[in-house]
Amino acid sequence: MGVIRDDAGVAVAPKVRPTWVRWAVAAVAVLAAGAAVTLAITRPWESAPGVPDTEHSAWFAVWITDSPSPEPVMDGVTFVTMTEWEDHVGAVRAVDPDAFVSVTAPVLFADREASRTPLSAYDGPLPDGTIVEGRAPASGEVVVSVRYRDEHGWELGDRLDLAAGEQGEAPFASLEVVGFSPEESFGVAAWEDAVTLARAYSVVRYDIGDGRGDAVVADGSLWWNGAVPEGLEDSVAP
Q1: Which of 38, 37, 83 lies closest to 60 in space, CA to CA?
Q2: What is the pLDDT of residue 206?
Q3: Residue 4 near residue 14 (C-beta atoms within 8 A)
Q4: Longest C-alpha distance within the chain, in Å?
Q5: CA atoms of 10 and 4, how far apart (whole Å)
Q6: How far apart (Å, rounded) are the C-alpha atoms in residues 235 and 82?
Q7: CA distances from 80 to 43, 122, 146, 164 (A)
Q8: Residue 232: what pLDDT?
Q9: Are strands 3-5 and 56-63 parallel, antiparallel or unpaired?
Q10: SS in 3 state form for 122-174?
Q11: What is the pLDDT of residues 69-102, one digit of tens each?
Q12: Choosing a second label site near 6 at 20 to 30 A (CA), which of 66, 86, 116, 189?
């Protein structure tokens, strides 16, 4: 299984295949074993165009960077390291080679500075129904929902400025609009940009004693047919 690597060549995320979910943003305050953690995270909410029709699905909060210690505790949320996530992906693909895997690539558009936009990132062709106009994005490009198009008057070829993230400067000055997704969706980021965007906009700030640190968490979702691999029994969606 391939992996995404950062600019230094360090493996930071597993390769993924196309999926679609409707993401709802939830800002959650968490207390965990003496560590005060404020977590901004996106979660699958309900079906939208392109959601795979499979027997099973599972969702995880994946630490792109090293996880904080101690980790936050949230009802219904399973936090996993990159190694654990890659193990889950490998186990599912061993059962179903056509399994679908998705990660989140949030952005903070300057025109929507008060609200993160949780885009989906795909490795490979997009699912049917993902785009209603235009094409899939390459690096430096983006597909946005038709509702944002209508709200802001965006057109194909427009460059959307990005606002600064938790780490400071925006990871890109702008992204070019190359397509529009259905009303029910948020949009699509290029797979090549997923880790860069997550590092900028999925940062967890936490305090432990006298120390303070940052970590990066992103959604990881699996859809597959066949048996449930060992270790995933408690994570399968009802």
Answers
A1: 83
A2: 59
A3: yes
A4: 51
A5: 8
A6: 16
A7: 15, 20, 33, 27
A8: 94
A9: unpaired
A10: CCCCCCCCCCCEECCCCCCEEEEEHHHHHHHCCCCCCEEEECCECCECCCCCE
A11: 777 777 778 889 989 999 999 999 999 988 888 8
A12: 116
Residue with tokens 């993902």: 130
- What DSSP character marks residue 95? H
Amino acid at the residue 77: V
d(CA 22, CA 187): 10
Residue 3 β-bridge partners: 14
Instruction: Give the integer Cα–Cα distance in Å for 155 and 162.
Output: 16
Contacts for 42 with CB less than 8 Å, ≥ 6 apart: 23, 24, 25, 26, 104, 106, 116, 118, 219
Report residues of the chain scoring pLDDT below 50: 1-47
Q: How far apart are CA 235 and CA 76, in angstroms?
A: 9
User: Residue 87: what pLDDT?
Assistant: 94
Q: What is the predicted pLDDT for the residue at 172? A: 93
The total of other beta-carbon atoms located within 10 Å of residue 22's CB is 18
Kindly state the DSSP code that residue 118 receives in the 8-state scheme. E
* Predicted pLDDT at 13: 36
Nearby residues of 32 by Cβ (< 8 Å), 6 or more positions away: 70, 71, 72, 73
Helix (H) or strand (E) holding 82: helix 82-95
Note the pTM of the prediction, 2 decimals.
Answer: 0.72
CA 168 – CA 171 distance, rounded (Å): 9
Q: How far apart are the first and last CA of the chain?
A: 27
In angstroms, the CA 50 to CA 187 distance is 12
Reduced DSSP (H G I as helix, E B as strand, rest coil) percent helix, strand, coil of the chain, to 5: 15, 40, 40
The Cα–Cα gap between 192 and 7 comes to 11
